[in-house]
Amino acid sequence: MMAQGLNNTKRRIKSISSTRKITKAMELVATVKLKKWKDQMDNIVTYLDIMDKVINSASDIDDFNNIDELKRYPNATSNLYIVITSSLGLCGGYNYNIFKFLNSIITKDDKVIVIGTKGLVRFSHENINLNDEYVDLMNKIDYQKVQNLVRQIQNEYQSGNYKKVCLVSTLYKNSLNFIPTEFNLLPLAKEKNGNEIQKEILFEPSKEEVLLNIIPKYLNSFLYGRIIEAMVCEQAARRNAMDSATDNAEELLEKLRIEYNKVRQGAITQEITEVVAGANNT
After folding, report:
1. pLDDT, tens digit, for every residue of 142-187?
2. Is 168 helix (H, G, I), strand (E, B) or coil?
3. Left, alpha or beta for 280 (phi > 0: left; psi -120 to 50: alpha)?
4. Cα Rg for the chain, rounded, in angstroms?
5. Of 217, 80, 231, whose CA–CA distance to 146 is shortest?
6. Residue 185: which H helix or E strand, with range?
7. Which of 70, 110, 234, 277 has the most CB atoms at less than 10 Å from its CB?
8. What is the structure's pLDDT at 117?
9. At what angle are helices 2-57 and 207-281 packed, to 10 degrees?
10. Pairing state of beta strands 178-186 and 162-172?
11. Calpha distance 134→73 (Å, rounded)
C-alpha cells in the first residue's frame, strides 16, 4: 500500500509539472502578444485624441441637420449593442465580466451584434435578437471588416429603429485592471469643453463640410481602436490567469514533494524495521 501511494504521488507530480510547463509557456506567449497589441493601441489613442478635438471644437454641431450621425430618434423603442468578447478561452473572468455588464443594461427589445465566438456561444442560448455576421472579427482583426460594420450600423441607425448605438467592450486601465464599459457610438455627442477649444482650430471650407468627411473616419477608427483595446485586455487577462495557474501549480508541487518525501521516508523506515526484526528473530 505504501508503494502504491508513492507511485500515485509520483504520477501527480509528473502531471502537474507538465501542466505548469504549459501554463508558463502560455503566459510567455500572452506577454509577447500583449506588448504587440498595446503598441498598436497607443498609436491609435493618439490619433483618436486629435480627431476628438476636431469634432468637439465644432461647438454648434447640433445645428447641422443634414449630418445623420448627429440626429436623434426619440420615438425608437430599442438600442443596438455591439459586444466584443474573446474567441479563445483561458483568460480568467474576462468574458464573464462582459456578460454580466451587458445583462445589467440590455432589454428584451434591444439587438446585439456579437464579436468573438465566446459571446456567440453564450448569447445563442439566451432570448436575444442576435447578429453573428462579424463573430470572427477577433480571429483576424481587419480594418476593411470594421468599415463594413460601421456602414451597417450607420444604415440601421439612420433607419430610425434605434435610440442609440453603443459599444460594449473592456476599457484598459493597466495590466491588472480592465473594466467592462459602454461607449456611445451614435448619435455622436458634443463634449462640454467644445467652446474652450473652438478657437484653436480653423475649418475650411466649413465646419459642416469637415464634419461630413471626418465623422465616418472617426467612427471607423474608434471602433477599430476599441477592438484593439479589447484584444489588449484579453491578452493581459490571459497572462494574469496563466501566471496564477503557474503559481498554483508550483505551490501544489511543493506540497506533493513534501508528501512524497514523507511517504518515502516512512517506507524506508518500515523496511529497516522489518530487516532489524528479521535479524533479531534469527
Report:
1. 999 999 999 999 999 999 989 999 999 999 999 899 999 999 999 9
2. strand
3. alpha
4. 28
5. 217
6. strand 178-186
7. 234
8. 95
9. 170
10. antiparallel
11. 26
